[in-house]
Design brief:
heterodimer, A: 160 residues, alpha+beta, Ubiquitin-like (UB roll), B: 823 residues, seven-stranded mixed sheet, 22% strand, Ald_Oxase/Xan_DH_a/b (chain B), oxidoreductase activity (chain B), Ald_Oxase/xanthine_DH-like (chain B), Ald_Oxase/Xan_DH_a/b_sf (chain B)
Chain lengths: 160, 823
């Protein structure tokens, strides 16, 4: 029953992954199952919750709504590639930690990548712009209060 | 290493908002959720469940082509049905097979499982399964289910009305006299739609087999690993020693992951039979269809009041639509029996008469969801207070002041003991912070300008951290309640605390380390909390019901307090001083008032490796267990909400949300506030947005996140929190539970605020969620009523159930002020 697979080259967090996937496989599944990057989570698989948000060529995208084969040769960033090294956190990660911006943590990678994409494009968003952007994703634990606060703190830290 | 001359460590770690030890790994994407474990196991097979598309019917056949690995009920020989017990004469069990046998009882009920070597292959195989069902008429409402000739969801027998599985009644001896003496009788009907806890992570399981030992390891998304182990082993008829249950990182639960999943029974049985590992990751659609629903309830109340607003008697008829099966271990009695016992809430109701029923239907079974019945109970009592205030011409704050409990401990009509709380102080703080007179001025000005602002309050008592006696009073066959912890130093001076509680986002690894650190005089960084693995932790009841900090935290403190004197005696031997002169702090044992010190690591090293030097009578090693089984403690809070309602669209905008919370000692205030934030937003969702909807054939139509509408950041206000700190000796840490309160209080405050806003239109909103369509419908009905009124017909005869008032004091809607006209 298995469909034929095709070879695919993905550039994820600066690493090249040569993988074999069915053409119907989503990018999220390929990242998780074929690249071993399980930090990208799946909360709905229909593009609403945003837990699988990653950066594709610098822009936030739902990994569950893209086929892996669409991303041949594109540059992909996932939560595993956010921190500069194992000793240092990215300012967003640091701010989420400092401001209790996560509880169960399942939505967190998606929020971090969404916020990273938003702040890289617009380093000084107004609160209104940030609320608009962060309302792309769902969280069920935090009531969003500290996610907004953490993102604002990170934006400030990233401008310094 | 020498001791610092003075300690820079704080006296108390409890009370500090230290950052969570859980976070760095999660922030880097290194968390380990069950689906991650499945993705990493390249050798496992993947399962997909085939589910009934029919609400009620006879299961005729389940077939698939020969190459499909198909598992049906016929392949589950020896597997019992799940039938949790309540020792009550009114309880009718509703046994749940792992996979449907002969009968299907709701849309989404699993009828078969297929396996594939990849998730996609399993999904393809599921498409090839042919399920033949002969449909019957489903029963989809309480009214249908309890009609004299109703089809039976289960064969029964039912001692009372058809399909009625719980029917609890109580009337206090002075009830009728109190009613006869009262001057005002206020009638009210409140309703709650079906809700989903909707954790961001749907359910998932991975079963691994160790061929060498024959043991099975189940990684699963559960809140109570030990109880799930018991449930699976009892149902499969195997020894608990064969099964290890692990809950790794769990992506939110809110009660929806505390019941035994029938899917896990099939997975464990099949993995064992085939000798191969199997993984299952639930889809969001399945999570809506089959992963437990909650809170479809209707309450009819009559409050009997004196002229000055004292509630002297409360009559309640409560009914919960509990779906098709009983959840293990708490049973489908959990909603009706909680409402039965706890309805009066924070109010000192003298006399109480209650009937509370659970009724089965051809819908997804219910299970606990954060707060269980208490959001509806609070909605009922708080709408009763506002409705009574309006009818008696009293101020909403004043009527609450009259009725709130003021003397502690307070014994309720159902025998619950409410420990020291701060109901009146919390209300006073809330009214002061809100500045009610200033709001009323703004409200009047807005009304003059055609805008509708409203202010709503809700007061509640949140029962938390309750132990065995409370569950025993519910007559549960399996009686939860206590928690045990095992606390041990290793020889290097690090501490491990093993707990039976099972956190899934609450940060217990951080907060319990804070509690232990204070007892042992160490930094929390050296305390590692081990949880959620039945091979590595003492038997316990997991995390639910706002219990973990109270009970596991209490046990942790007790273990630490019991270990401390041993550490002091060993230190005294090393320092050549009296044990009572030893001070443990900052990782050091010091002689009080002198310079001599020995590190706590040295104490541990001595206890393990130089036990021959220990004082007379001291055993080798440095460890202590403790068990805590409290009666329970009540947090309390007041929520105050300002809203604006647009009568043209029915849209509600929340302008201000204040929580005045009293949870006693706050171990980590940032984490407490986080719990309140999350609960309040789920409460706003329940009040305004979220609803599970079945069609007339019993098909769930809200099966995606485009149909079921959780709030995003754009829909939630900034939440202000103020804390009060009542000391209570009902809990050994002084901490009261706080996990559910946000959700318990928010819906009532929001609906009271909407009703306050729409008072000029003669509208009361008593059903949640108050969606824009529903608010528009109320406005349309009120318009019709006011037109009929002007034409000289009785408004009482035309009043729908949503506006409920005693016949002698029906509020007259202001006519002809409805903007927007008819829809």
């Amino acid at each position: 029953m298995t469909s034929p697979t095709v070879p695919l080259r993905l550039f994820v967090n600066g690493d090249r992954h040569e993988i074999q996937v069915e053409p119907r496989k989503t990018l999220a599944d390929a990242l998780r199952e074929d690249c071993g990057l399980t930090g990208t989570h799946l909360g709905c698989e229909h593009g609403v919750c945003g837990a699988c948000t990653i950066l594709v060529d610098g822009k936030p995208a739902r990994a569950c709504l893209m086929f892996a084969v669409q991303c041949e040769g594109m540059s992909i960033r996932t939560v595993e590639g956010l921190a500069p090294d194992d000793e240092t956190l990215h300012p967003l990660q640091q701010a989420f930690w400092d401001n209790h911006g996560l509880q169960c943590g399942f939505c967190t990678p998606g929020f971090l990548m969404l916020a990273a994409g938003v702040l890289e494009e617009n380093p000084e968003p107004t609160e209104e712009e940030l609320v608009e952007a962060l309302s792309s994703n769902l969280c069920r634990c935090t009531g969003y209060q500290n996610i907004l606060k953490a993102t604002q703190c990170a934006a400030e830290a990233m401008r310094e | 290493m020498s001791a610092p001359a003075t300690s820079t460590e704080p006296m108390n770690w409890v009370g500090q908002s230290i950052r969570r030890v859980e976070d760095p790994a999660i922030l880097r994407g290194w968390g380990s959720y069950v689906a991650d474990i499945a993705a990493r196991d390249r050798a496992c097979h993947y399962a997909v469940f085939v589910r009934s598309p029919i609400a009620a019917g006879r299961l005729v056949s389940v077939t698939a082509p020969a190459h499909v690995t198909l598992v049906t009920a016929q392949d589950l020989a020896g597997v019992a049905q799940v039938s949790p017990v309540l020792h009550r004469p009114d309880y009718v069990p509703a046994p749940m097979p792992a996979l449907a046998i002969d009968v299907v009882r709701f849309v989404g009920e699993p009828v078969a499982m297929v396996l594939g070597r990849t998730p996609a292959e399993a999904e393809d195989a599921a498409e090839l399964v042919d399920v033949q069902i002969e449909p019957h008429d489903p029963v989809l409402t309480v009214r249908q289910a309890t009609a004299p000739d109703a089809p039976l969801v289960h064969p029964g027998p039912f001692p009372g009305e058809p399909n009625t599985v719980i029917d609890a009644r109580l009337t206090t001896p002075g009830f009728e006299d109190a009613v006869a003496a009262a001057e005002h009788h206020v009638h009210l009907t409140v309703e709650s739609a079906r809700q989903s806890a909707m954790p961001m992570e749907a359910r998932a399981s991975h079963v691994g087999i160790d061929r060498a030992s024959g043991r099975i390891t189940l990684h699963t998304t559960t809140q109570m690993p030990h109880v799930i182990r018991t449930g699976i082993c009892d149902t499969l008829g195997i020894s608990e020693d064969l099964l290890r249950v692990v809950a790794p990182d769990v992506g939110g639960a809110f009660g929806a992951k505390m019941s035994l999943a029938r899917e896990d029974l099939v997975l464990v049985h099949t993995a064992r039979r085939l000798g191969r590992s199997i993984a299952w990751v639930e889809t969001r659609e399945e999570n809506f269809l089959a992963s437990w629903h909650s809170r479809e309830q209707e309450y009819q109340l009559t409050g009997s009041f004196t002229a000055n607003g004292e509630l002297v008697a409360l009559r309640a008829d409560l009914v919960a639509d509990v779906g098709a099966y009983s959840c293990y271990p708490v049973t489908f009695g959990v909603e009706p029996l909680m409402a039965f016992a706890e309805l009066p809430g924070p109010y000192a109701v003298g006399e109480y008469s209650v009937r509370s029923r659970g009724v089965i239907t051809n819908k997804c079974p219910i299970a606990p969801y954060r707060g269980v019945s208490r959001p509806v109970q609070t909605l009922a009592m708080e709408r009763l207070m506002d409705t009574a205030a309006a009818q008696l011409g009293l101020d909403p704050v004043q009527i609450r002041q009259t009725n709130l409990i003021r003397d502690y401990p307070h014994t309720t009509p159902t025998g619950m003991v409410i420990d020291p709380s701060s109901h009146l102080e919390a209300l006073a703080t809330a009214t002061q912070t809100i500045d009610v007179p200033a709001f009323r001025e703004r409200q009047a000005a807005a009304r003059a300008a055609g805008r509708y602002l409203g202010l709503g309050f809700s007061c509640f008592a949140e029962r938390t951290g309750y132990g065995v006696p409370v569950f025993a009073a519910r007559s549960m066959g399996i009686t939860p309640g206590y928690e045990k912890v095992d606390l041990a130093f290793d020889p290097s001076g690090n501490v491990v605390l093993r707990i039976g509680a099972s956190p899934h986002g609450q940060g217990l690894r951080t907060t319990l380390a804070q509690v232990v650190a204070d007892e042992l005089g160490v930094d929390p960084a050296v305390v590692r909390v081990v949880h959620s693995d039945t091979d590595a932790t003492p038997y316990g009841w997991g995390s639910f019901g706002s219990r973990a900090m109270v009970i596991a935290g209490g046990a942790a403190r007790m273990a630490g307090a019991a270990l401390r004197p041993r550490m002091e005696r060993i230190a005294a031997e090393l320092l050549e001083c009296a044990p009572e002169d030893v001070e443990l702090r900052g990782g050091w044992a010091r002689v009080r008032g002198a310079g001599a010190a020995v590190s706590i690591a040295d104490i541990a090293r001595t206890a393990y490796h130089r036990s021959h030097t220990l004082p007379e009578g001291e055993q080798a090693g440095l460890e202590q267990s403790a068990l805590y089984n409290p009666l329970g403690t009540f947090s309390n809070a007041v929520h105050a909400v300002e809203v604006e309602v647009d009568p043209a669209t029915g849209e509600v905008t929340i302008g201000r949300f204040l929580v005045v919370e009293d949870a006693g000692v706050l171990v980590n205030p940032a984490i407490v506030d986080g719990q309140i934030h999350g609960g309040v937003v789920q409460g706003i969702a329940n009040a305004l947005l979220e609803e599970l909807i079945y069609d007339e054939r019993g098909v769930l139509v809200t099966t995606s996140l485009m149909d079921f509408l959780p709030p995003t950041l754009a829909e939630v206000p900034r939440i202000e929190i103020e804390h009060l700190y009542t000391a209570s000796d009902f809990t050994v840490t002084g901490a009261k539970g706080v996990g559910e309160g946000g959700l318990i209080g928010a819906p009532a405050a929001v609906l009271n605020a909407i009703t306050d806003a729409l008072t000029p239109l003669g509208i009361a909103v008593n059903r949640m969620p108050a969606t824009p369509a529903r608010i528009r419908e109320e406005i349309r009905r009120a318009t019709e009523r006011s037109q009929e009124h002007r034409q000289g017909r009785s408004p009482a005869a035309a009043a729908g159930s949503a506006t409920t008032a005693s016949a002698e004091s029906v509020p007259t809607p202001t006519p002809a002020t409805v903007p927007g006209g008819k829809p």
